[in-house]
Amino acid sequence: RKEVEQDPGPFNVPEGATVAFNCTYSNSASQSFFWYRQDCRKEPKLLMSVYSSGNEDGRFTAQLNRASQYISLLIRDSKLSDSATYLCVVVEGNFNKFYFGSGTKLNVKP
Amino acid sequence: SAVISQKPSRDICQRGTSLTIQCQVDSQVTMMFWYRQQPGQSLTLIATANQGSEATYESGFVIDKFPISRPNLTFSTLTVSNMSPEDSSIYLCSVEYLGVGANTEAFFGQGTRLTVV
Question: Is the pLDDT reported for residue A34 higher than 80?
Answer without folding.
Answer: yes
